[in-house]
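Attaching the record inline, Q. Sequence:
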Amino acid sequence: MILGMDRSNSEATAEVVVVGAGAAGVGVSWVLSEVAGIDTLVLESGEVGETFRKWHEQMRFLTPSFTSNAFGMVDLNAVTPTTSPAFTLGTQHPTGAEYAHYLQSVVDYYEIPVETHVNVESIRPTNGGFRLDTSQGPISTRFVVWAGGEYNQPSTGTMAGAEFGVHVGRVGEWGELTGGDHHVVVGGYESGIDAALELARRGSKVTVLDRGEPWAGRESDPSMVLSPNTHDRLWNQGGGIELVGGVDVLSLETSQGGYVVRGADGQCWTCDGEPILATGFRPLSAVASPHFASDEGGFPEVTERADESTITPGMFVTGPALRHRGVVFCFIYKFRQRFAVVASEIATRLELDTDPLSELAADGFFLDDLSCCDVECAC
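Structure, as predicted:
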């Protein structure tokens, strides 16, 4: 198979097709191809790291990068054990564009087979595998690993009038927002506080509404509370941000010269700037979602043995959408620990040696015992 070739009149084949060339896609494909020696093809609808390239200029990684690899501690944002965004980029909290450069460097160095600007239009199970219909022609494969990420699928839930607000995933530049000296941000987790901080920095008054009070939480799992980096920025900012918990937002409306945000208890807030929706993302795209059952939270259900669909054998998921046995894998340093688990399952079915994959456990890339994930910090 020749990468970049127009295959509209022929069918390509690969043992494994990975959909998405972000952090999850590049990382899991490195394990599959470089460590396990499995014929792997990565399909990306844009460029390598496309969703990171769509981050607005002010957005930064929450988790810090540090070149600690030589001392047995892999950079928290690395997708392979012997690379480091801190080393490659020379920065601790990379921008999206910077991190995309790091991912491209990994692809180039390891010669990971990535085809860019290929849209996956459908995935159909066949006898013994799958057929993927793409913008560049059909592809047959034994296994599919979905690494499509979430950033391209903003969610507003059941909120009425959501079209009157702007989802944080659709903000290209904060200065482009429609006027306003006061904005209401719906959602008080990382993206909501990040939005509030940037708007306040630009002189706007900001009211943040959330069902709970994530800014006040204390848990060992950083996926459940604000990161230390966000806490630092929030409590050290110069004012202009009001945090309001216990609010279940039902609707957005327009009014003369502004907007009205209504809560379930009858409260309402008015603002003259566009409301900002930090209401999360859908975990799977329309192409992938039919192949996974959903749990109560809307996340894909996976098998106990590996991160495989419970309804479509041979189709796996990796990345921030992953939830396994109650554990949330939404950070890179978390979901990379399941790369080798997926690869080991595929290698076993292909009757390949899995010993090289087991060795990745020492680097934090093979976590199959999740009992340690319940440990609370002593202090």
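Residues 1-6 have pLDDT under 50 and may be disordered. The first strand starts at residue 12 and ends at 19.

More tomorrow.
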